[in-house]
């Protein structure tokens, strides 16, 4: 049965307009993106099939072009559209944290860091550079390492902080394993960077570890 033949309140687009996007399932959201199904399958049926093949929405969103395009109903055009949607989402989050103090919008900071780092297959270390009112000046990936870890050089972090004329910063890195629990090495690195940056009067406000769930804050653990 075509989606057009469904009761109006069950159609994904109409349901979104009436109840908001959060009310839709992953398959319904994907169906709106797909717009049409294939022979014998409605857009929702196709979406459910694709989610099953990929193993979930996150895996589909993070798929590479070749793997993405190999599936029924998808291709380079859909891949390009999807990447554009994801980039718009990241830029929206970036605009939100640039508008407000990072300390006053902790969830926005978490959401932004998840969007930037959670999909990385290898360990990445980055900084949010902040002004005197703790508004974001810039986000930079400073070091990239193997899946086992990254070498972080305090001199380079200090250099970039001075280049941005930052008054404070937030450190962040991902754990590709998906487990965001801070390690002893993470705590030691944070202390080393905190001491180096204090010499040029730049404060370290937090260090977030990004995994599969919510980023973990070392400041909330009392380790900053």
From TrEMBL:
Q: Which residues form a coiled coil?
A: none
| InterPro entries named among the record's database cross-references | MPN, RadC_JAB, RuvA_2-like, UPF0758, UPF0758_CS, UPF0758_N
Q: Which CDD domains match?
A: MPN_DUF2466 (cd08071)
Q: Which UniProt keywords apply?
A: Hydrolase, Metal-binding, Metalloprotease, Protease, Zinc
From the UniProt record, give one GO term of the biological process aspect.
Answer: proteolysis
Task: Kindly indicate where the leader peptide sits in this chain.
Answer: none
Q: Where in the numbering of this chain does the MPN domain appear?
A: 102-224
The family database entries (Gene3D superfamilies) matched by this protein are listed as: Cytidine Deaminase, domain 2
- Which is an annotated GO molecular function term of this record? metal ion binding
What family does the entry list? Belongs to the UPF0758 family.
Protein name (record): DNA repair protein RadC
Q: Which organism is it from?
A: Geopseudomonas sagittaria
């Amino acid at each position: 049965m075509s989606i057009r033949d469904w009761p109006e309140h069950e159609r994904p687009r109409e349901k979104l307009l009436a109840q908001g996007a959060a009310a839709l399932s992953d398959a319904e959201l994907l169906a709106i993106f797909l717009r049409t199904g294939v022979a014998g399958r409605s857009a929702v049926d196709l979406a459910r099939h694709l989610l099953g093949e990929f193993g979930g929405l996150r895996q589909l969103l993070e798929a590479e072009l070749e793997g993405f395009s190999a599936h029924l109903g998808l291709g380079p055009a859909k891949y390009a559209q999807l990447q554009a949607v994801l980039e718009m989402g990241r830029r929206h989050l970036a605009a939100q944290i640039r508008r407000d103090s990072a300390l006053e919008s902790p969830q926005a900071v978490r959401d932004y860091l998840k969007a930037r780092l959670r999909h990385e297959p290898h360990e990445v270390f980055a900084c949010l550079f902040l002004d005197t009112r703790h508004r974001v000046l810039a986000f930079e990936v400073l070091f990239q390492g193997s899946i086992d870890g990254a070498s972080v050089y305090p001199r380079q972090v200090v250099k970039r902080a001075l280049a941005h004329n930052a008054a404070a910063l937030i450190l962040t890195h991902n754990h590709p394993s998906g487990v965001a629990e801070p390690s002893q090495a993470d705590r030691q690195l944070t202390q080393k960077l905190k001491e180096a940056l204090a010499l040029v009067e730049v404060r370290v406000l937090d260090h977030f570890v990004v995994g599969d769930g919510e980023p973990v804050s070392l400041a909330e653990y009392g380790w900053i």
